[in-house]
Amino acid sequence: MTEIVMDQTPPILQGPSDKERKYDRQLRLWAASGQAALESANILLVNSGAGTVGVETLKNLILPGIGRFVIHDNALVDEADLGVNFFLDDSCYGKPRAQCLASLLGELNPEVDGDWSPKTKNDTLGSLLKKSPLFTAIMYTYPINHVELESLEQYSKEHKTPLIAIHSTGFYSYFTIRLPGTFPIVDTHPDETATTDLRLLSPWPELVEFAKTMTKDIDSLDNFEHGHLPYVVILLHYLDKWKATHNGTYPSTYKEKTEFRQLVRDAARTDNPEGGEENFDEAAAAVLKTVAPFSLPSGLKEVFEYEHKGPIQERSTFWIIADAVKAFYTNHGSLPLPGNVPDMKAQSKVYVQLQNIYKAKARKDAAEVLQTAQAIAGTGRKVDPAEVDLFCKNAAFVKLINVEGGGDTAPLGSKERLQQVLRQEMANDQVAEMTLQPMSLFPTYLALRGLAHCGNASSDKTQIVEAVKSLLSDNLSSEEYGDLNEKLGNVAEDLARAEYGELHNISALTGGMVAQEMIKIITKQYIPIDNTCVFDGIRSRTQVFHV
Amino acid sequence: MSSPEVLPDSEAKRWKYLNNVRTRPGAFVDPEEFDGSTVVENMNKIKILQVILSTGSTPSVCVYQPIQAEADTFSRVIGAGGLGCEILKNLALSGFKDISVIDMDTIDISNLNRQFLFRHADVGKFKAEVAAKFVERRVKGVKITPYNCKIQDFDEDFYQQFQIVVCGLDSIEARRWINATLVNMANCENPDSMKPLIDGGTEGFKGQARVILPTMGSCIECQLDMHAPRAAVPLCTLASIPRQPEHCIEWAHVIAWDKEKPFPQLDKDDPEHITWLYQKALERAKEFNISGITYSLTQGVVKNIIPAIAATNSVIAAACCNEALKIASSCAPFLGTPGEGEPNYMMYSGNDSIYTYTFKHEQKEDCPVCGMTARVLKVNPKWTLEELIESFATLPEAQLKKPSVRAEGKTLYMQLPPNLEEQTRPNLEKTLEQLGLTEGTELAVTDPAFVGVVFNFSLKFA
After folding, report:
1. Which of B244, B353, B360 best probes binding to A when mutated, by most A CB atoms within 10 angstroms?
2. DSSP conformation class of A457
3. What is the chain B residue with the closest CA to A64?
4. pLDDT category, B8, cuts 50, 70, 90?
5. What does this protein do (chain A) (predicted)?
6. A29 interface with B at CB cutoff 8 Å
7. Does position A170 have pLDDT exceeding 70, yes or no?
């Protein structure tokens, strides 16, 4: 993942530390930088109801080593808690639930600090929020009371804190992540296969020279040399030949590409024991993917076209660097070269040379971007070269989360937005029915919202459905309701049997997903959901909505 | 050692949330077909088996190939173990009262970032025992019986006593073994002999949960082509043209170690051994100007380490136990319900947003374990028997490492016992043609890893 510099320090004879060994399996996913971010995180859980889903989420955050957690929970432990929550035992009966949870969760990882509230009658959520060190993220579970919810929303707005709502009842759950403004991710960890950017159609002088030298007398190369030509060099050579016989153009249509591919295949020598050449096989296999003109990836396009509201000084360095990359793109018509070369059959020496050519160009491009970024930032602000490098390596895969749609799209979190998504989902369902695809889980989401609106353990199917209707307001036609009614009715009926209680498995599953998302947000690696995930435990499926 | 029983009305209060759901039909079960009043009593009687690590050895991979995500997110089955703690907690809180756990593994410090029933002080102890004690103490009224053994140490009689089997195994071989055992046991005349098998596996942010009803639907063997073994790095790359740090590490692991034998036996968990390999790999990398060798990478390549986190394990283990609860109580439709289009397999991916793909994997008629017909095998009649036998190891739909072969009553080659092996060894050099095999000949193949299973193939000459 992170490149080690050539002149590395001598090997550590005693191996990794205890902490590195403990966290080994997760460090392979988010490296030391991600781990450092986790260890600086301070997480608040406002717990309520059956109180399990938030606790399972915390378990999955404490184990990998967040810095600190606080549980705010007004309940005292009762018998029913012991049949659903793993982090309570018989000795907790009658005690403050927050205290017992903090204790038993704390055991999971001695390196994590834990605290709980309320400790006295005067401790409110409001007072907790005031006196606590800044929270990195806050999660709360339903049935949270509306006064507490308001304090959280206030805090989140003021401090720009990610706020996560979680609801788990019976076989269903959802969670929603509310982020403070647009959230860019640079380190998206794209699939290995997707990241190859060889620039075969726009090679730079050093690469051209290298390829020309290797293939100067290609036909008179001995079998060993011929059979170890890196496929990058093979493709460059034959692309040149194609250009010469096609008015200086590259293969562009599918037909032309397959023709070109055959040309490459035919160039392989067959008078050898293997009956072919592996490097030419690799070259042919790479044609369709690498002989493709550049097109600006949609994620990056969104970044380039983003309309800022405030002045440059208020923007994070992400946006400064993005502007610099945009300038690079405008000047050169291409993005900074990421610089990685996939493995391919070649002599070691040759491969390393090729790698170095790509790395040199990547470094040169990144240096240019750094210079531009520093100019944009001005003298008062330092741009970190490492941040520039990361952006340049990942430019094609950068993603923006939590962007307001603008135009006709209603604001996120609004009633109108709910209606818009509902209409879209019902329309999708009509197609899905015909193509035997699964149905939308939006009615499930609405039913849970309706249940929370009723706020009552004894809410029955009818009450839940009525609550959903009032949430949506009367903008929907009775025809549209007709479609929704049946689907909603089934979920509401199944939901009602749970009497607002949690099933451990559903809460554990949801707790896994929520923790995973919080880790992505804290480490700023991998791509978070945008913004609501619903789980249906009857059919074992999820669906993500942008509400 | 089982914990004190919970008193009856305390029991009802304690399991209120669970009982509200499992004793009521909900919207998707026919109320006429459902008797909520017997659910608790029935579930209390169920013996459920949880199988975790079984072989104590990582799957044998010739040469390390870096984990490459495939274009299709969902095409591969994955299976690091480590789900044991989550599964045990979930089963105990799902109303199962009699849980048995088979797990041969001992606790390692690298488990502590997700296997939450274990503490630093437990390192070195047997997982099954520690886990059982912990959960029995925490959840009253549940009896948990640990077995620190391999699944292969037990026979059909042992497995007959259970009603459901949940797997969080670490290898394909182990999964195939338990699958073959359960399929062989299933007898349509005795419904009790059909034990639902629920299987889960994770890798990083991805995982899958599947339900197998032996003989009634797709089984692990039917799904074997979803476990396509990774292509090995060619030996010549390791020996003469390394380009990646992994090539240098594997060279040290396979070639240098063999030649220099610094220690009598390679212990992949010994930091001293890994350090030796690390330093050797560094030297080689220096020779070829390759950068990127780290201790961590060395360990990863040699042990074939799969990244793992608590969050994904939480998701997959819970998905499995959710199905177990539904199967045991019948209070809602479950994965693997027999029927047209009924899904039996959920794939989960969490690195880029959250995606699940829940679908039906169809049973294969020519499945060597649960199918009725022989599987077609494309062969070259000019192959020697030895070449055919070697091909079974890499063939995606066979993956047999030590196969013995008979053809229509005639024994062609037996790996065991030694005298039979000696007797049949001359056949290895003969071609299939010379051995009298023709188009359509049926082969019966067995492998010591799968006792009691006969893999039937029908030859097709290509």
Report:
1. B353
2. T
3. B113
4. low
5. Regulatory subunit of the dimeric UBA3-ULA1 E1 enzyme.
6. yes
7. yes
Cα A76 to Cα A268: distance, rounded to the nearest angstrom: 76
> In this complex, do A11 and B305 lie within 8 Å of one another by their Cβ atoms?
no
The larger pLDDT score, comparing residue B271 to residue B97, is at: B97
To which H or E segment does residue A400 belong? strand A399-401
- The yes/no answer on whether domain B375-461 falls in CATH 3.60.20.10 is no
Q: Which residues of A37-65 are buried (b: 16+ CB within 10 A; e: fewer)?
A: bbbebbbbbbbbbbbbbbbbbbbbbbbbb
Q: Which among B314, B320, B340, B348 is the top mutation candidate for probing chain A, defined by the most A β-carbons within 10 Å of its own β-carbon?
A: B314
Question: What is the DSSP-derived secondary structure letter of residue B425?
Answer: G
Mean pLDDT, to the nearest integer, of B59-71?
31
Q: Is the pLDDT of residue A305 over 60?
A: yes
**Chain B residues lying within 8 Å of A439, measured CB to CB:** none
Chain position carrying tokens 């092996």 = B421
pLDDT category at B7 given cuts 50, 70, 90 is: low
Spans of all domains in chain A? 16-183+503-543, 202-288, 296-399, 413-497
Mind listing the pLDDT tens digit for each residue in B25-37? 999 999 999 999 9
Residue (of B176, B307, B321, B300) closest to B244 by Cα position: B300
Residue B57 vs residues B269, B275, B304, B400: alpha-carbon distances, Å:
11, 21, 11, 17
Give the pLDDT of residue B58: 33
Q: Which of B358, B321, B360, B334 lies closest to B28, judged by CA?
A: B334
Q: Which of B110, B137, B318 sits opposite A21 (nearest CB)?
A: B110
**Each residue of A367-396: pLDDT tens digit?**
999 999 999 999 889 999 999 999 999 999
Mean pLDDT for all residues in chain B: 88
Statement: A16-183+503-543 belongs to CATH 3.40.50.720:
yes
Distance CA A446, CA B250 (A): 54
Confidence bin at B62 (pLDDT 50/70/90): very low
pLDDT tens digits along A326-343: 999 999 999 999 999 999
Percent of chain A with pLDDT over 90: 83
Residues of B in contact with A12 (CB under 8 A): 295
Residue B136's closest CA among B92, B87, B82, B90?
B92
Beta carbons of A283 and A231 less than 8 angstroms apart: yes
- How close, in Å, is residue B41 to chain A by CA atoms? 17
Give ipTM to 2 decimals. Answer: 0.94
CA atoms within 13 A of residue B211's CA, in its CB half-sphere: 29
* Token pair 């197998």: residue: B212
Q: State the sign of the Cα–Cα–Cα–Cα dihedral A344, A346, A347, A352.
A: negative
Chain A residues lying within 8 Å of B352, measured CB to CB: 188, 526-527
Residue ranges of the domains in chain B? 9-58+77-227+307-359, 235-303, 375-461
Phi, psi of A242 (to 5 degrees): -65, -45
Nearest-CB residue to B307 (from A29, A228, A351): A29
The beta-carbon neighbor of B295 closest among A16, A26, A90 is: A16
Task: Kindly list the residues from chain B whose CB atom is less than 8 angstroms away from the CB atom of residue A192.
Answer: 66, 68-69
**Is the domain defined by B9-58+77-227+307-359 classed in CATH 3.90.1150.10?**
no
Q: Is A24 on the interface with B (CB under 8 A)?
A: yes
The arithmetic mean of pLDDT across residues A496-503, rounded, is 97
% of chain B exceeding 90 in pLDDT: 69
Q: How many CA atoms lie within 13 A of A174 on its CB side?
A: 25
Q: Give B-chain residues touching A526 at CB under 8 angstroms.
A: 205, 351-352
Q: Specify the DSSP class assigned to residue B256.
A: I
Separation of alpha carbons A112 and A63, rounded Å: 9
Whether domain B235-303 has CATH 3.30.70.20: no
